[in-house]
Amino acid sequence: MKCPFCDELEDKVVDSRMAKEGEVIRRRRECLSCKRRYTTYERVEESLPVVVKKDGRREPFDRLKILAGLKKACEKRPISTATIEAVTDRVEKRIQEMGETEVPSTTIGEEVMKELHQLDQVAYVRFASVYREFKDIDQFMDELKALARERREK
């Protein structure tokens, strides 16, 4: 593992622990050159599907894109980073469980929207406005009215 401080390749593992219910191993490492410590995370490399974009392009699945979209939608909301990570994990897991070699980006977007709908309605509307490409205020208002109806029915 390359040291993030001095770029040396030699290190030693000082401590290993399970994280995220055994799905990840957290390792504390010490660089043998500069003696500084850093943390790495190890997870099973799973075969993830190729994402088919709306315009037909194909690109590798990237959980960081989901994470970035969630962080943007949840900006200035009372939602912890741990919660955002957990949502990302659940969406990624559901995509993997589909067992498909290719998944439309719309499927991923819908999974994220399901999670946000339950988590925070403001974050949901923010994400939906970008994901569904609202063209005008009327589309935005229609989404808000639907949320208000759901809330009254509960």
Radius of gyration: 20 Å
Tell me the β content: 15-25%
What fraction, in percent, of the residue positions are helical? 40-55%
Quaternary structure: single chain
> Outline, from the CA principal axes?
elongated
Strand adjacency order, main sheet:
1-2-3
Question: Structural class of the helix and strand makeup?
Answer: alpha+beta
Strand tally is: 6
Count of alpha and pi helical runs? 5
Which regions are unreliable across 5 or more consecutive residues at pLDDT < 50? Answer: none
Q: Mean pLDDT score, rounded?
A: 91
Largest sheet composition: 3 strands, antiparallel
Distance between the amino and carboxyl termini:
52 Å
H and E order: EEEEEHHEHHH
Total count of domains: 2
Note the main attributes of this structure:
6 strands, alpha+beta, 5 helices, 154 residues, three-stranded antiparallel sheet
Summarize the structure in words.
The chain is an alpha+beta fold and about 150 residues long. The protein has 2 domains: about 10-45; about 50-154. About 45% of the residues lie in helices and about 20% in strands. It has 5 helices and 6 strands. It has helices at about 65-75, 80-95, 105-120, 120-130, 135-154, and strands at about 10-20, 25-30, 35-45, 50, 60, 100-105. Strands 1-2-3 form a 3-stranded antiparallel beta sheet, with no helix packed on it. It has a 3-stranded mixed beta sheet with strand order 5-4-6. β1 (about 10-20) and β2 form a beta hairpin. α1 crosses α2. The radius of gyration is 20 Å and the shape is elongated. The protein starts with 10 loop residues before the first strand and ends with a helix. The model has no long low-confidence stretch (mean pLDDT about 90).
